[in-house]
Amino acid sequence: MTRKTNNGAAEEGDPEYTEVLEDNSRSILMGIIAQLRKGTDLHRVSLPTFVLEPRSMLERITDFMSHPNLLLEANNQADELERFIGVVRYFLSGWHIKPKGVKKPYNPVLGEFFRCRWKYDNGTEGLYVAEQVSHHPPMSAYYFASPDNGILIQGNLKPKPKFLGNSAATLMEGGSRIQLTRHNETYEITMPNVYARGILFGKMIMELGDSCAVECPETGLVCELDFKTKGFFSGQYNVVSGKIKRGVLREISGKWSHEIFIKAPKSKKKESFFDARTADIHKLIVEPESKQAKNESRRLWTRVTQALQRQDMDTATDEKTAIEDAQREERRVRNERGETFESRFFVPSTTRPDQYDFKWASR
C-alpha cells in the first residue's frame, strides 16, 4: 500500500509522474516510434497532441522562479557559504512543478517569446522575458531581472530529444547564470536530463537523471548534484544527492518531488532543505492575450491550448499543424529573400560561444 503525502503524491510509484495511456493513444505513439531508430533526434518528429503540456517551453522555464523568497533570502546572507547554499536550494526548488503524467511543453517556434512579472512581498518586482532564438538547433534564451534586489538570471537552453528504445530522453544542454550584483558573484548552473520511460511497454513515467552542478567562480564553491533514475529491479523514484565542496562542506539527499535534506559531512543530523509538499508557488503575472503580440506564447498557442483543455485532440492537432506550417512558410520566404532571422530581445554573445545575451543587459 502506498502512502500519500500532503500534496497527494505517493512515496512509491509516484502517480503524479506516471501515466497510463489509452489503447488508441498508445497505438498512435507506437506507430510513430516504429518509424524511428535508436538515437533519432525527436525534434524532427511531430509528436501527437495527447503528450503535450498546454504551455510553451518558454513559459515552463519560469518554474525555476516559482519560489523567489529562497533567492531573496540567499541574497541577504552576509556569509558566502550561506549565500551559496541558498542558491542551491533555489535551484532545486523548481523541478517539482509539472502537470500530472508525462507531458512535453510546446516546442517554441522561431521568434516566439514569452514575458511575465512577479510582485514580491517586500514591494519589489521581478521581470522575465524568453525568446526562441534558433530553430535548428532549437535554443531558448531567457533573462530575469529584479534590479531593486540586485538579482539577474540569464540562460540558454538547448534541449536535444533522443529516442532510446523504451524511453525518450531530453538532453539538456546549456544552463543558467545567476548574478548577485551586490556581492559581485555569479553562479553557473547546468541542468539534469529528462527521461520519459515506458513508451513501448509498462507505465509511462518522467524521471530526471544524470549529473549537473552549481559553481561560483568568485568563491570557489561548487555543488555537484546527481539526479538518480530508478533501477529496473531496485531503487526509488526522484532521488537526488549532492555535495557542496571546497573540501566537503555539506551533503544533500532526498527526493526533488517531495523533501530534500542537508547536513554537515560528519553529522548524523539532517535538516530539511526544501519541502515541495508544503512550499507555496509564487504566481506569475501575464498580460491578457488581447494585449499580447501575435507571436507571444499564450496568444500564439491559444487555440491548441483551448482544444487540449476540452480534450478535443483532432482540433488541437489541426491548430498545432497550422502553427508549424506557418513557421515553415516564413522560413521559405526568408530563404527566398536571402534574409536571416534577427531576435527581438537577444543577440549572439561576444564572450560565450554559441550562446545569446539579453540586448539591454549592460544598459
UniProtKB/TrEMBL annotation:
Family: Belongs to the OSBP family.
InterPro entries from the UniProt entry: OSBP_sf, Oxysterol-bd, Oxysterol-bd_CS
Protein name (record): Oxysterol-binding protein
Originating organism: Syncephalastrum racemosum (Filamentous fungus)
Taxonomic superkingdom: Eukaryota
GO molecular function, one term: sterol binding
Lineage: Eukaryota, Fungi, Fungi incertae sedis, Mucoromycota, Mucoromycotina
Pfam hit, one: Oxysterol_BP
A GO CC term attached to the entry: membrane
Stretches for region Disordered: 312-336
